[in-house]
Specification:
- Helix content is 73%, strand content 0%.
- The chain contains 15 helices and no strands.
- The chain has helices at residues 3-12, 23-35, 48-60, 63-83, 86-91, 97-108, 113-131, 133-142, 145-150, 156-185, 194-218, 225-241, 254-260, 264-277, 285-310.
- By secondary structure, it is mostly helical.
- The protein has one domain (47-310).
Length: 313
């Protein structure tokens, strides 16, 4: 670079300090800036936390949305759970307390239907929270944010995982609130242990990952929120009622029992009941963990793979 060019750059500079520097100092400073330019991150996790926190911030800065999302499971606990007082119904038939406990345990795996339902409500809140993880993709596409994200070095898999993780975070917080409310309303805590509570939230975490991935995958190509809402309504209630969240499997028709046994929600609820209230499960606890873990891993992998094919501007 010749001296005339350097002098021209000095005169054009808007930095007053550059006016007092020699041409050699300016040239050295420019070379130093070039050398210290930040390198482009090629990590597959680049931008993951920023995308996750963006969606979480929209949720935790809106307390009304949190309150509304908790109304339905709390109403079910307070009204539906208390209205179906099977203990009083059995007592009215003349059965002794010991006989009542035996009958209830044979049907529900525990002597308290309210405790049985409370564990199902933990799965209920996760299911409905996860269902709306896909709606975030639809609105991001509709309002142009998705196009901006796809124009950055952020991996497409990170975009999908950000949607999944924000839904998982919401699910864990809301499940904790529902559990506290259930205990306040009379849930049996005799079998509560730190290990059991940790195990229950591990199952909730895995269930939330799998379900959030499922609904996010279904929204990858959708640009119409009405279509996505139709998909949510189509899947949510069958996943809930074709599980053991509300009623035990043994009182269902044989054909429905087969459906319940292929529903991953059933395995999550069964595991939660075993570790929280010591209920008799329809499967071994290890099988419940294995199914829910496999469900989370497989659906997450499918979401990441499909993101490279279906996420486009």
């Amino acid at each position: 670079m010749d001296e005339d060019t350097i002098n021209t750059k000095i005169k054009a500079s808007k930095d007053p300090e550059d006016q007092t520097k020699t041409p050699e100092q300016v040239s050295a400073q420019q070379e130093q800036r070039f050398r210290t330019a930040p390198k482009l991150s090629r990590s597959p996790f680049h931008g993951l936390w920023a995308l996750t926190n963006r969606d979480l911030r929209k949720w935790y800065t809106n307390p009304i949305q949190l309150f509304v999302s908790l109304i339905q499971p709390i109403i079910w606990l307070g009204l539906f759970g208390k209205a179906l007082n099977f203990g009083s119904f059995i007592a009215g038939s003349g059965a002794t307390i010991a006989q009542q406990d035996i009958i209830l345990k044979n049907f529900f795996g525990t002597t308290s239907y309210f405790s049985f339902l409370s564990c199902g409500m933990l799965a209920f809140i996760v299911l409905f929270t996860s269902a709306f993880s896909g709606m975030s993709v639809v609105f991001d596409r509709r309002f142009g944010f998705l196009n901006k994200a796809l124009s950055t070095p952020v991996a497409r898999g990170s975009i999908v995982m950000g949607k999944i993780l924000q839904s998982v975070g919401r699910s864990l917080i809301q499940a904790a609130i529902v559990l506290v409310v259930a205990v306040a309303l009379g849930m049996d805590t005799a079998n509560f242990t730190p290990q059991g509570i940790a195990g229950a939230f591990l199952i909730i975490f895995l269930m939330a990952v799998g379900l959030s991935a499922l609904f996010t995958v279904l929204a990858l190509r959708s640009g119409d929120w009405q279509t996505q809402m139709a998909i949510i309504n189509l899947l949510n209630l069958p996943l809930l009622f074709a599980s053991n969240a509300l009623f035990p499997v043994k009182i269902m028709p044989a054909w429905l029992q087969d459906v319940v046994r292929v529903n991953p929600v059933s395995y999550a609820v069964d595991g939660i009941r075993q570790v929280l209230i010591g209920a008799t499960g329809m499967n071994s606890l290890w099988l419940d963990f294995a199914v829910v873990t496999g469900f989370a891993i497989i659906l997450s992998a499918i979401g990441i793979v499909l993101s490279w094919r279906f996420l486009s501007k």
